[in-house]
């Protein structure tokens, strides 16, 4: 894992009420397309290129207040694999080993020490 290939790319919010979340963030100046409330995934680019992503949480599970996921771009598929191996090798919880996702990315999921989701992708 090299520092130059891994960069913070996105923050994901799992929303129980997507329309309310988008309305809130619109009031803070973020822009979303009309009808975004009906989409399965919504993004807004923040200054500096970080994406703020919203996904509806239809699970009905009580997951407590606030759920975020941090997404790190790892350069390429080998970077995803190496970063996942380094973090799990250091004792951190790996939720999903690297896989080739149907949407065309190499993807892996871990948890940070506080239980927040950390996605690795390329």
Structural class by secondary-structure content: alpha/beta
Number of strands: 7
Sheet bearing the most strands, described? 7 strands, mixed
**SS summary, helix count:** 2
* Percent in helix: 10-25%
Spatial arrangement of strands, main beta sheet: 2-3-1-4-7-6-5
Secondary structure: elements and pairs:
Blueprint: E1 7-15, H1 18-27, E2 42-45, E3 51-56, E4 68-73, H2 77-89, E5 94-100, E6 106-111, E7 117-121
Parallel strand pairs: 1-3, 4-7
Antiparallel strand pairs: 1-4, 2-3, 5-6, 6-7
Summary tags:
122 residues; alpha/beta; 7-stranded mixed β-sheet
Describe the structure.
The chain is α/β, with parallel strands linked by helices and 122 residues long. Helices cover 19% and strands 35% of the residues. It contains 2 helices and 7 strands, in the order E-H-E-E-E-H-E-E-E. The protein has helices at 18-27, 77-89; strands spanning 7-15, 42-45, 51-56, 68-73, 94-100, 106-111, 117-121. Strands 2-3-1-4-7-6-5 form a 7-stranded mixed sheet. The radius of gyration is 15 Å and the shape is globular. It starts with 6 loop residues before the first strand and ends with a strand.
Q: Summarize this, please?
A:
The chain is an alpha/beta fold and 122 residues long. The protein has 2 helices and 7 strands, in the order E-H-E-E-E-H-E-E-E.
């Amino acid at each position: 894992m090299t520092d130059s290939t891994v960069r913070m790319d996105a923050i994901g919010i799992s929303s129980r009420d997507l329309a309310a979340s988008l309305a809130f963030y619109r009031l803070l100046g973020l822009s979303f397309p009309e009808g975004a409330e009906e989409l399965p995934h919504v993004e807004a680019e923040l200054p500096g290129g970080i994406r703020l992503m919203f996904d509806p949480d239809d699970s009905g599970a009580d997951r407590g207040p606030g759920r975020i996921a941090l997404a790190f771009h790892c350069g390429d598929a080998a970077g995803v694999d190496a970063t996942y191996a380094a973090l799990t090798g250091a004792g951190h919880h790996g939720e999903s080993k690297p896989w080739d996702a149907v949407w065309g990315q190499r993807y892996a999921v871990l948890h940070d020490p506080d239980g927040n989701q950390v996605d690795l992708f390329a």
